[in-house]
Specification:
Order of helices and strands: EEEHHEHEHEHEHEHEHEHEHHEHHE
Shape: globular
Strand content: 15-25%
Number of helices: 13
CATH topology of the domain at 81-105 and 208-387: Rossmann fold
Structural class: alpha/beta
Helix content: 25-40%
Oligomer: single chain
CATH class of the domain at 81-105 and 208-387: Alpha Beta
CATH architecture of the domain at 81-105 and 208-387: 3-Layer(aba) Sandwich
């Protein structure tokens, strides 16, 4: 509600927030939304939050929608930050938590980004939205577009989990399956969007999905009584959530919601060994990641061989003192059962990957027993039943 402008994340050039935008006109990179935070701070206070709705729209002053009537919501956000005492006890960890994003509408964290992106599309009067997706973003777009009365055109790899495909079809989306990866789906959207009249809501190719995702950072701070965790492990495909949280931490300090100079969490991105462009770039000291050729993993959300926000992720990892970890599909599947049996959470393989990565950090003495550690479960294992064979 206090949105002032958009800016290129690479060079900082300002862009008009009053019209629909995709990537920056200057560098072809993601745009970030900027706000009058001094004005927002007058009403977005710890006291005011105590009586607000339990959804991500509780932070409406730092979300982009101007007209409340344009908000398209299914009750997303304010997911539980679950203590994981049994898993923690196995490793001598006293403050281990799981942020369970499976409890969002459409059972994944993608609801956060799509509520803001589709709300802005409604505010702008857009009629047709298109997205390439490995699965969960497609389901979220289908749901929010249906809620808004907007047409959704979805492109997914043929081997996307069947649950995601059915989900989109049953919510009235136009579904096209592509023989290839999400990058091939994105190329098809780019090729056809002008002629078809679609607005592209691909990951970080419009400015507002990141704004919904940044509320992960706001919620963590509020749920931890206005402190930040020491360590965050986040499964990374396109990386919008990690990038959004890093943006949120700066905003929280400027708003006066966390103390000046609050230490930022060490951010660890988790990828699959069969698709690890960010891990490779981090280890090589590069700012931009080379596309991972022949990408493969059963964790479909991690099968993103090239991310437009690569430099934003890598900057956050390095500035935070964190890192990048790759885990195998077998480790993910094994850890799914371990998390489920210990804590009653049936994580997606991407979420289980975070626990597998935590084991690597523990073995390398990169986390300590006294630290507050948050693992992100981004979706439910029920959407990935093909991963759990006989």
């Amino acid at each position: 509600m206090h949105l002032t402008h958009l800016a290129c994340t690479l060079c900082g050039q300002r862009h008009d927030a009053a019209v629909p935008q995709n990537v920056s006109a200057c560098c072809g990179k993601p745009l970030f939304a900027h706000y009058d935070l001094a004005a927002a701070a007058r009403t977005l206070t710890k006291d005011s939050l105590r009586s607000r709705e339990k959804s991500l729209w509780r932070y409406r002053e730092v979300l982009p929608v101007r007209d409340i009537a344009s908000i398209v919501t299914l009750g997303e956000g304010w997911t539980p930050l679950l203590p994981a005492p049994r898993l923690g006890a196995r490793h001598g960890l006293k403050k281990l938590f799981i942020k369970d994003e499976a409890q969002n509408p459409t059972a994944s964290f993608k609801a956060r980004g799509m509520t803001t992106a589709v709300s802005m599309a409604k505010q702008f009067g857009l009629k047709k939205l298109a997205v390439p997706s490995a699965g969960n973003a497609a389901g979220a777009l289908a749901a929010y577009a249906a809620r808004a009365g907007i047409e959704a055109y979805i492109f997914m790899p043929r081997d996307t989990p069947r649950a995601n495909i059915i989900e989109c079809e049953q919510m009235g989306a136009h579904v096209t399956l592509i023989a290839g990866l999400i990058t091939d789906c994105g190329a098809e959207v780019a090729r056809r969007k002008a002629a078809e009249g679609w607005f592209d809501v691909s990951t970080l190719k419009e400015p507002y999905r990141a704004e919904g995702k940044k509320t992960l950072g706001y919620e963590l701070a509020e749920q931890l009584e206005w402190t930040l965790p020491d360590v965050i492990l986040y499964p990374t495909g396109g990386g919008t959530g990690l990038i959004g949280m890093w943006k949120a931490f700066d905003e929280l300090e400027k708003l006066g919601l966390i103390a000046p100079g609050t230490k930022r969490p060490r951010m660890f991105t988790v990828q699959a060994t069969g698709c690890q462009p960010i891990v490779r770039a981090f280890e090589a000291g590069e700012r931009f990641a080379t596309e991972h050729a022949g990408a493969h993993t059963r964790a479909s959300g991690l099968r993103v061989p090239k991310a437009i926000g690569d430099f934003l992720m890598l900057d956050a990892l390095r500035q935070s003192g964190g890192g990048a970890i790759a885990v195998s599909d077998d480790e993910m599947i094994s850890c799914t059962r371990e998390v489920g049996a210990a804590e009653g959470v049936f994580p997606a393989p991407e979420g289980a990957a975070c626990y597998a990565a935590l084991k690597q950090l523990l073995a390398a003495d990169k986390v300590s027993p006294a630290e507050t550690i948050v693992l992100f479960n981004t979706s439910t294992g029920l959407k990935y039943l093909e991963c759990f064979g006989d």
